[in-house]
Write a structure and sequence with these properties.
The structure holds 2 protein chains of 2 kinds.
Chain A lengths: L4 E12 L2 E12 L3 E5 L6 H8 L7 E6 L2 E3 L4 H7 L1 E4 L11 H6 L5 E2 L2 E2 L1 H14 L15 H14 L4 E5 L7 H16 L3 E5 L3 H7 L2 E6 L2 E7 L5 H9 L3 H5 L12 E10 L3 E9 L3 E5 L6 H9 L6 E6 L2 E3 L4 H6 L2 E4 L3 H5 L6 H13 L7 H15 L15 H13 L5 E5 L7 H16 L3 E5 L3 H7 L2 E6 L2 E7 L5 H10 L1 H5 L4
Parallel strand pairs in A: 3-10, 3-11, 6-9, 9-10, 15-20, 15-21, 18-19, 19-20
Antiparallel strand pairs in A: 1-2, 1-4, 4-5, 7-8, 11-12, 13-14, 13-16, 16-17, 21-22
Helix pairs in contact in A: 13-14, 13-15
Chain B lengths: L8 H8 L5 H21 L7 H26 L7 H18 L4 H25 L4 H19 L4 E2 L3 H8 L1 E3 L1 E4 L2 E4 L5 E3 H19 L1 H11 L1 H6 L4 H27 L1 E2 L7 H11 L11 H21 L5 H39 L1
Helix pairs in contact in B: 2-13, 2-14, 3-8, 3-9, 3-11, 3-12, 3-13, 4-5, 4-6, 4-11, 5-6, 5-11, 8-9, 8-11, 9-11, 12-13, 13-14
The chains are: A alpha/beta, B mainly alpha.
């Protein structure tokens, strides 16, 4: 029934300097359907969306909205056309109140003045619809990211759009919040809204979508009804390679007598994380499993000196070492890829070359600058070795896709030839192909004798790669198991044992 | 903004305790502390009289008028260094126009308004569309205006004009109806045209910032310009209008200053832009944008003007102590802002963590 297509994009082409971002892509959306848009990072999903929201302008093709050809010129224009978008990062103003963030730009007026009372009342009603009973007159920055994300969805929903685009809205939401969001999505669908849903979580795709469209390298792979495509088929189509080769990753064998590279004994900071002991052999991959907030990141930060330990001691290479700041760790052959690459990792305005050279330069000291040639060699070597998709090393890192940014960060630390590498959620928010790539790189480094600490929320990753797994819960290390005979259920049951008591803390 | 009518007292308290007002409370609090100190130390010399209080307004109205526009610029996350020079240029236009060329003063004022507002709009356009940092753009505007001042005359020109004299010497006394006739409440306390202009601009500023979409867009831009753009707000238009409005305020400040000193001089009001920025910052406006209230700016102006008043009452201190005290005050407020901002961030990261651990 192609008649009720609310949106049709035909033969869309977008050219960026050096790359064809979209090549003759067709996409259609019906009124009252949830349509997932899938593809790896850099496949062109965001570009397609940004073409629709007026951020990018198409170089070819037509967009037909409600039977009329349109060309959104700007986000403002797109909103006027009835296209409303929720971006992955919360795109609201932290200094404005919750209520105002929902209504700014279209505030109800009364006698030539903004009608604050109506704004606050309607905002409260809207947030109740999302089962959030919060004080809407507080600044947005007062609330957690999950609440902020809900607010931005509330704003998008309230503009009475014909089309709602949700670009990875679930990455900062917990399970209950995701369920709630799906409920809202279904309600809107019933009201006849067309929803474009972008996510990396395949389960979520199957939970709410009616149809899905797959993009790969700027090309359209196909549009399918959700019943007509299996998960394996879907992933194969997205990645363009056979799944088996990707998941054919083997954990590295570690010599039982290999020397300990890093031993931490009873390290901790009172009130934060206490009494953690871990020891890591040469060439070993140690997984840190646990829920968000269980103390995994805090432990990694203590090991690297990003937060100073109050108790306990750290031994590197068999020698007791005083690590007070990241520089000490760096000089002792450690490297640390932090959790949030956007905040702590990349320097968006610098080129790939500069981002890669950063850690090496820091280690050499500013008195011994890397020559341009050394930098170029370094950048070229890693762009090739890690398969970073970019026309050249001078592209700003901020313009790369998430997976490629992560590879650049990895390259930055690999370039220092670390003995111990700590990776905090290196695979978060990137697609399956890039995830497998990152895991392969980690394992290769272990083969070369680097010891790796791998923090991840996805248990299958940890189990697949780790020689040993440390399980954390409530800011404590609760178990350490061998990677080879560990299962997802086993780790989950360890985590779940104490979860009951932790649940009641939040109001 | 509080909706006390249909809410319980709990939510009234919570809206009073809203963290977004902390900086205003700090400004008002410190103003009261210093005022009480002045009252205790120099009350006998007449510090607490209404006359002293109205003089705070009379002697600083031109700063206040300019601070209204500056507050808006700062909230967008910008800065305007041209305000002193534009005000000085306005004074030159009026002085040279009326006293040398013999033109109608209203014509001179109209001409100043066209030039000042035009320059503001132009600078806003350059800042937004050519993406030149506001600091550089308005520095250029400052040199430009200062240069034109010197071009007109390098001598101080006394303003001799009946209309200007009448405006400058017009006084409004506080009256009360007593025993069948109007009498002055305090014989020597009055406000003049400048004070009224200041208060009118302040009210206009409050109205624009709190009650119009234009004003709320200013806050949104200061909070996160990229987000504001993605939310579909008219970012470019708003920024250009803000600089235009600030140009208007600069011209009005220039008029007020011309009425205050009754002369025009090409080197007058040097560095005034920094005093104006100081007033806004003491009033709780964040230099990084997104936060600030007109009412805070009012108290910022009063605080800054109270320091020289205190020094005058003391009688033994050199007037340079005023600069030192202003510097210390500014430092204090920047520290308070830093603490408030970082404590908000800390609380947020904590709430985020508890949120996540629930997941």
């Amino acid at each position: 029934m192609p008649e009720n297509n609310i949106l049709e994009m035909r033969q869309i082409e977008i050219q960026f300097p050096g790359v064809k971002a979209l090549d003759k892509v067709d996409f259609s959306l019906r009124a009252g359907e949830i349509h997932s848009l899938l593809g790896e990072n850099g496949a062109g999903k965001s570009t397609l969306i940004k073409c629709l929201t007026g951020v990018h302008h198409k170089d070819g093709g037509t967009i037909i909205l409600d039977g009329r050809e349109v060309q959104p010129q700007s986000p403002q224009n797109a909103i006027e056309l009835g296209i409303s978008t929720v971006y992955q990062e919360v795109n609201l103003c932290p200094n404005l109140t919750v209520a105002e963030n929902i209504f700014v730009g279209r505030q109800p007026m009364k006698f030539g003045q903004i009608d604050w009372r109506t704004i606050n009342r309607r905002a409260r009603e809207l947030m109740r619809r999302f089962h959030l009973d919060i004080d809407v007159s507080r600044p947005l920055s007062y609330y957690s990211t999950a609440v902020q994300q809900m607010v931005s969805i509330a704003r998008a929903v309230d503009v009475q759009a014909k089309i709602l685009i949700l670009d990875e809205p679930t990455s900062s939401l917990d399970d209950n919040e995701v369920k709630l969001l799906f409920q809202v999505m279904r309600d809107l669908k019933a009201e006849g809204m067309g929803i474009i849903f972008i996510t990396h979580f395949l389960d979520q795709v199957y939970a709410v979508s009616d149809r899905l469209t797959i993009l790969r390298n700027g090309h359209l792979v196909g549009t399918y009804n959700i019943e007509d495509i299996s998960k394996v088929e879907l992933v194969t189509q997205m990645v363009g390679k056979d799944m088996d080769t990707i998941f054919n990753l083997k954990r590295v064998n570690v010599d039982k007598d290999a020397p300990y590279m890093l031993s931490a004994r009873h390290i901790g900071i009172p009130g934060q994380v206490e009494d953690i002991s871990v020891s890591l052999r040469k060439g070993e991959l140690m997984g840190f499993a646990g829920l968000l907030g269980s103390g995994r990141t805090e432990t990694a930060e203590m090991l690297f000196g990003a937060t100073k330990i109050a108790n306990g001691e750290i031994e590197l290479n068999g020698k007791k070492t005083d690590i007070r700041k990241p520089y000490d760790a760096l000089m002792n052959g450690m490297a640390f890829c932090p959790e949030d690459r956007k905040v702590d990792g990349i320097i968006g305005d610098l080129s790939i070359r500069e981002n890669i050279a950063l850690a090496v330069q820091a280690r050499r000291g500013f008195m011994h600058p890397l020559s341009r040639k050394e930098q170029n060699d370094l950048a070229d070597k890693y762009i090739q070795a890690l398969g970073i998709a970019t026309p050249n090393a001078e592209k700003k890192i901020g313009e790369l896709s998430g997976g490629n940014q992560q590879k650049v960060i990895l390259a930055r630390w690999m370039a220092t030839n670390p003995k111990v590498l700590i990776l905090d959620e290196p695979t978060r928010g990137i697609d399956i192909g890039a995830k497998a790539e990152i895991q392969r790189l980690m394992l290769e480094m272990c083969e070369d004798g680097v010891s790796v600490i791998f923090i991840s929320s996805e248990l299958d990753e940890i189990i697949r790669c780790s020689n040993r797994i440390v399980v954390m819960r409530d800011r404590e290390k609760v178990a350490e198991t061998d990677g080879a005979d560990c299962t997802q259920e086993k780790i989950l049951s360890i985590i779940a044992e104490g979860a009951q008591s932790a649940g009641g803390a939040e109001s | 903004m509080s909706d006390s009518r249909n809410s319980s007292s709990r939510s009234l308290i919570s809206s009073i305790m809203n963290p977004k007002f902390i900086m205003v409370y700090a400004t008002v609090g410190i103003f009261l502390v210093i005022y009480l100190f002045g009252a205790a130390a120099y009350g006998s010399k007449g510090f607490t009289t209404l006359r002293t209080f109205t003089n705070l307004f009379i002697d600083n109205a031109y700063y206040g008028i300019s601070a209204v526009g500056m507050t808006m610029v700062l909230i967008t996350g910008g800065i305007d260094l041209s305000v002193g020079a534009v005000a000085s240029l306005t004074g030159m236009f009026i002085a040279y126009g009326t006293s040398v060329l013999g033109l109608n003063p209203w014509l001179c004022i109209a001409f100043s308004l066209v030039v000042g507002v035009g320059l503001g709009l132009l600078m806003g356009w350059v800042i937004h569309y050519l993406n030149v940092p506001p600091f550089i753009t308005t520095l250029t505007g400052m040199f430009l205006a200062r240069g034109v001042c010197a071009l007109i005359s390098r001598e101080s020109i006394e303003i001799k004009n009946e209309t200007i004299d009448a405006l400058a010497s017009w006084k409004l006394y506080f009256m009360q109806f007593k025993d069948g006739e109007w009498v002055r409440i305090r014989p020597s306390a009055y406000i003049n045209f400048n004070v009224i202009l200041f208060l009118v601009m302040l009210l206009l500023g409050i109205y624009l910032l709190q009650r119009t979409r234009f004003g709320r867009n200013i806050y949104a831009i200061g909070g996160n310009e990229q987000s504001a753009k993605l939310m579909g707000l008219p970012v470019g238009r708003t920024k250009i209008l803000v600089y235009g409005f600030n140009g208007l305020c600069s011209v009005l400040a220039g008029i007020a200053y011309a009425l205050y000193v009754k002369s025009g001089w090409n080197l007058s009001l040097q560095g005034a832009e920094l005093d104006v920025i100081t007033c806004a910052v003491i009033g709780g406006t964040l230099l990084t944008g997104g936060e600030g209230y007109m009412i805070g700016t009012l108290f910022g102006v009063l605080l800054k003007s109270m320091i020289p008043a205190l020094i005058t009452f003391n009688g033994n201190l050199l007037s340079w102590w005023g600069k030192i005290a202003t510097g210390l005050l500014l430092l204090l407020f920047i520290c308070i802002q830093k603490i408030v901002v970082s404590s908000t961030e800390r609380r947020n990261s904590r709430t985020k963590k508890t949120k996540k651990s629930k997941a």
